[in-house]
Design goal:
This protein is mainly alpha-helical and 95 residues long. The chain has one domain (8-93). It is 78% helix and 6% strand. The protein is built from 2 helices and 2 strands, in the order E-E-H-H. Strands 1-2 form a two-stranded antiparallel sheet. It is rod-shaped and about 95 Å long. The N and C termini lie far apart (80 Å).
Length: 95
């Protein structure tokens, strides 16, 4: 296997140049795929951080809503659930 188109490898095995070209293509594919995977993981981390912010904002909004209806209940003397139902009806009517 000692032809012009073969190249000695480190182990002494003779490989054709097209074998090395194929190996280079695999390496290029792996590099591209790992780069894409890294970018995807980065995007996922950004989404998870954004999700964490949104969940925190939802929790704060729920707390603020409860405080609002508690205060409104104290001001009006009406039951909190009654006021929430009234607010829900108003929201649906005005959408």
């Amino acid at each position: 296997m000692n032809s012009e188109n073969s190249t000695p490898s480190l182990s002494g095995l003779q490989l054709k140049s097209n074998h090395f070209d194929t190996i280079k293509l695999f390496v290029q594919k792996y590099d591209i795929l790992y780069k894409d995977l890294g970018a995807l993981e980065n995007d996922i981390q950004k989404l998870l951080k954004r999700q964490e912010v949104i969940v925190g904002d939802l929790e704060k909004t729920r707390i603020d809503e409860e405080a609002f209806f508690k205060n409104l209940s104290e001001e009006t003397g009406k039951d909190i659930q009654y006021l929430k139902n009234l607010a829900s009806a108003w929201v649906l009517e005005n959408k």
